[in-house]
Fold:
Amino acid sequence: MRLNRQMNAGDIAREIAWSRREFLRGAAAVVAGGATTSFARAHTSVARNRQKAVVVTFGGGARDEETFAPDGQENIPNLVQTLFPQSTFYAQVINRGILGHYVATASLATGVYETFNNFAAVSPHNPTVFEYFRKDLRRRATDAWVVAPSNGFNRIGESDHRLYGAGLGAGVILPKHLLAAALPSQGLGNYEHLLRDNYEAPFNTPALAGNEVEMERLHHLLKLSVTDFSAHARSLASPDELSVYIARRLMRELAPSLLWVTLHDIDIAHSGAYSLYIDGIRRSDRLCADIWKTIQSDPEYAGKTTMFILPDFGRDADTDPGGNGFQHHRTGDPLSRTTWMMVMGPGIRQGVVIDRPVESIDLVPTLGSLLGFSARLAHGTPLVEVVS
Ligand SMILES: [Zn+2]
Structure:
């Protein structure tokens, strides 16, 4: 995409959205005979109390060059050819918050731009979607779960808000942390590729606390022994594969109505290794399709589950002369703030691109309208194309 230096941030975001529409129009015309123009309304009217939602976020988005642009589409065949034709695609999702992965994901989960230090061990200050869901709908603790990449996310399931908070949040599973805990006697050598915790400096590991689930409880909940867990982990290529393995196990054993999975492999881009960044994109693309397939094949989920896929934010053009254009997200430029979202499930229009600007914080109120709870303190707005 050629961006004119005179353009303001809004113009650039609009240009990005327009390009994505054109890219997808081209791809869909080849794949689905021009499904972008169809407003096919899928089967609707799933009773609200049976509705489920699965949210998949990427910690660290990717540039369009490696994804939706014509030359990038070979890296995301599942998103473009399989999932897009079934989805409503928001081409211009603006994140106006802090571009650090924990704080940004917490903002996605509260519907308010959280302002705490990304590297601090703190809970979100505004109620999370899990608390609204459980309190309003009187759901038990096992009905809302988060599977997240690293130790910094251990508090994402529950805010410190005085009207919500303690005892109302989601269970949080940090598969990498569980694996590390399961391994001391066997050594970490064979698992190092699964345990890398953070791709950015400053690297630190906040003290663990919050709703994080320990191995013993996981064994009980997921019927997964330490031995089986570590043996299976050995067959996996990356931390995100480990996360999706756990997410599927959760779906099979507990069938939570609200499941949030945060992927993080793409963020290896910070290392500057282009091939690893591409591998991360391809793996994320495949894992999204795997999750959708699991939803379709599980009677607890099929026909009553809405899936949302969105990066927490984008990557920037990196104005640092030493930068290579795909590596970071530190300039706060429109490229790093303008991301996208795919929504699919019963009642969702298929193969539709929405150009108008929406915000990352619209996700939680949208989930509220879909599932029937009030995200009363969230700042976003329900997305009319999804909820009406
Ligand atoms: Zn990052």
